[in-house]
């Protein structure tokens, strides 16, 4: 599936073929994702942000236990309209990520596999 997507991107990327174009489009798509989520909060209101310092009790000693106390700071449920926009922007991000991989002769699926193995091997120690 991932290899097929990367091949489709290679076939359809014509206008923004320069590495500089792809890098700037990747950055732009990231900003558009941020904007789409912000609009869900500020314009639509289907989501709200209730941010505060993460509170983990001092007696918590394991990563799995601490995970129970970590909050997303999101309240509400994204509506279908906002979800559609965010999904579209995420798709654009994936398109330009695959385009970057193509230009650098990197297999996107291999990246997924290596990252998955890294996370499974190191677990919580791989967090940044």
Helical/strand content category: mainly alpha
Question: How many domain modules?
Answer: 1
Distance between the termini: 28 Å
Q: Please state roughly what percent of the residues sit in beta strands, choosing from under 5%, 5-15%, 15-25%, 25-35%, 35-45% or over 45%.
A: under 5%
Radius of gyration: 19 Å
CATH fold-level name:
Helix Hairpins
Major sheet: order of its strands? 1-2
What's the β-strand tally? 2
User: Which stretches are low in confidence, meaning pLDDT under 50 for 5 or more residues running?
Assistant: none
Helix content: 55-70%
Taking all residues together, what is the mean pLDDT?
92
Count of DSSP-assigned helices: 5
- Per CATH, the superfamily is MazG-like
The CATH class label is: Mainly Alpha
Give the biggest beta sheet. Answer: 2 strands, antiparallel
Form type: flat
Order of helices and strands: HHEHEHH
Q: In the CATH classification, which architecture applies?
A: Orthogonal Bundle
């Amino acid at each position: 599936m991932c290899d097929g997507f990367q091949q489709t991107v290679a076939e359809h990327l014509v206008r923004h073929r320069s590495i500089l174009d792809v890098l700037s489009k990747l950055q732009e798509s990231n900003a558009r994702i941020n904007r789409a989520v912000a609009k869900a909060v500020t314009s639509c209101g289907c989501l709200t942000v209730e941010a505060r310092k993460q509170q983990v009790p001092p007696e918590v000693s394991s990563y799995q236990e601490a995970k129970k106390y970590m909050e997303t700071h999101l309240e509400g449920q994204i509506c279908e309209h906002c979800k559609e926009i965010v999904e579209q922007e995420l798709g654009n991000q994936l398109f330009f990520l695959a385009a970057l991989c193509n230009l650098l002769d990197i297999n996107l699926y291999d990246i997924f596999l290596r990252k998955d193995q890294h996370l499974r091997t190191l677990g919580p120690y791989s967090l940044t």
